[in-house]
Amino acid sequence: MPTSVNIGLVGAGLFGESHLQAYRAVRQANVAAVYDVDMDRARQRAKDFNIPRVCSSLDEICSLPEVDAIDVVTPEDDHVQPVLKALANGKHVFLEKPLATSIADCQTIIKAAKASGRTFMVGHLLRFETKYGIIQDELQAGKLGDIVSMHARRNRPKTLLPRYGRTHPAIENSIHDIDLMLWYAQRPVTRVRGYGRQTAGPKHAETFWGVIEFGNDGPLGIVETIWLTPLEAGVPLDDAFSLVGSKAVARLQLHPSPLAFFRETGYEAPDLSYDPRVRNSAMGCLRDQMAHFCDCVLENRQSDVLNPMDAFRAVRVALALMESQLSGKDVQLTDWE
Predict the structure, then answer these.
(1) Which of 41, 69, 217, 291 is the most buried (most CB within 10 A)?
(2) What is the CATH number of the domain that holds 122?
């Protein structure tokens, strides 16, 4: 039985580089090839991470016989073609969230993944983050009782908006917390309402609030995403999650951080949860997620943590919230499956 997975990386941008940093800490992973539409960037990543092959096309990397799996880290609206090509060539596929940016594209990807019989996984990495995982364990053990309400805040530096503002914040950022709420509640969403505000003239709202109803008498959820933290504040992750249960309350926050640096240039609190950098590698839940993917590939099985249908439902909720914001009206969700 093989002991390592040869990976081809498609998309060598900022988060593609984070994936490469994570693979450095995953003993089962060997990055064998890289492809990006920007060839200079692909060559630089290959040099920095000792990747033996730089491919000049998507067809080339997906057809390499030595590659077992393709890791797709392309822009949110460019997921379908890489996934379909990889699956058509018999490769296992890891796809960075979201699954896609439309219902039709989500359905196309899921249909192809099911037909392929290959391991297919969508990267909702917070399911591997220790603090969020403990909340799930507490719920499963009945220690929190029935969920009454959930509230998530995800606040990011405004300097990231030019890069990530290409996509609506509901599907770019709130998708993480929507997925968590679906994971925790394990119930269909029946109605949503979205609200957005723009102050600096970006393509999409840089402040977004979404209200989610789980069933007619089920939990309420609020997702809050903001892209207005000043970079000078030194706080890259101002994230929090609160879950109120009938027996107990769970409250999680990433700031204030247990580790901070008081530098001559100002305050700095590094990421300790998602992909913290230690010994020139990405640790945390990104590393654990990629290790899980490699384990599933080696065992030729689907993930028991990340179900593609869960990723599809998260996109459905995000798109409904976007529709609600634009229309100024509630949006009902039917036919949950």
Answers:
(1) 69
(2) 3.40.50.720
